[in-house]
Amino acid sequence: MSRTATCVWRADAALVLALDEHLGPPVDSYLNGAQTWITDDGPGGEALEWRLHPVAGYRLPRELSHYDLWEEIVGALSAGADPDALALGAERRTLRSVWDGLECYAAYGDDLEPAPLAQAATAAIDRAPDAVGLVDHDRIGTAWEDARGATSIVEMVFAELKSTT
Question: What does pTM read for this prediction?
Answer without folding.
Answer: 0.94
